[in-house]
Amino acid sequence: MVAVVTGASDGIGMEMAKILGGLGFDLVLAARREKELTQLAYAIEKKFPVKAEICVCDLTDEEECVRLHEFCEGKDVQVFINNAGRGVIGEFTKTDEAAELAMLKLNVVSAHLLFKRFASSMESGFILNVASMAAFQETPLMSAYGATKAYMYHLSSSAGYEMKKSGSGVRVATLCPGSVSTGFDRAAGVPHPLRGMSARECAEIALYQMFRGKDLIIPGWKEKAARAAVRLIPRKIVLPIEYRIQGKKLGDRAL
């Protein structure tokens, strides 16, 4: 049995890789940072009787997505964790255009392509697409990021239902975490990240619920309550609340 994890060099992806190794899965670890992937693969193989291979790739490039899938051909892939992603924070008219386009390629185009390819080639097992709580409501100051995660949430949910109705042996789950303490905020240029759930706890909850067949995974009671509230509270109230939450990450630059 093989588990493929994208964005495995840090955060939730790294913790999921460790847990899956402990469950006896051989691993394919994908990310851009070769040093971190090599260290992770070595640590997992040293601790567990499994094989951990690395595939160094920049998944903002569609050809690299295809290469990752081809790297996994012939392997008994039973789990695909579609985790790689990035964010951009700031006012929409002032954020860096190139950074946003790279985010769109990774969070939407590449995530879509990898999901489609693995869903088409796997005969059984589980796919976990990582979205965000930002998928459920507007997110001022992270407008484009929230839009990418809404895309992934709707794609994952709808395509997963199609696969279930068609009798596919692959179950699709969508993970929508809230604030998680990872390297994500650093990469997104967040100067004042909010304290959140640990990456380990998020990974444990996500995999436990995925293997139980849960379609939508929202780790944490606060996040579940927030989603319920968003359904009831008018947008004119939600928007300023979200603006203030995201603004706290920017400090005096936004509030």
Label this structure with key terms.
255 residues, alpha/beta, Rossmann fold, two-stranded parallel ribbon, 51% helix, globular
Characterize the biggest β-sheet: 7 strands, parallel
Helical/strand content category: alpha/beta
Approximately how much beta-strand content do the residues carry? 15-25%
Uncertain parts: none
> If helices are DSSP runs of H or I spanning 4 or more residues, what is the number of helices?
9
Provide mean pLDDT, rounded: 90
CATH fold call: Rossmann fold
CATH superfamily: NAD(P)-binding Rossmann-like Domain
Distance between the termini: 50 Å
H and E string:
EHEHEHEHEHEEHEHEHH
| Spatial order of strands in the largest sheet | 3-2-1-4-5-6-9
Radius of gyration: 18 Å
Number of strands: 9
Shape: globular
The oligomeric state of the chains shown is single chain
The CATH architecture comes to 3-Layer(aba) Sandwich
What is the count of structural domains?
1
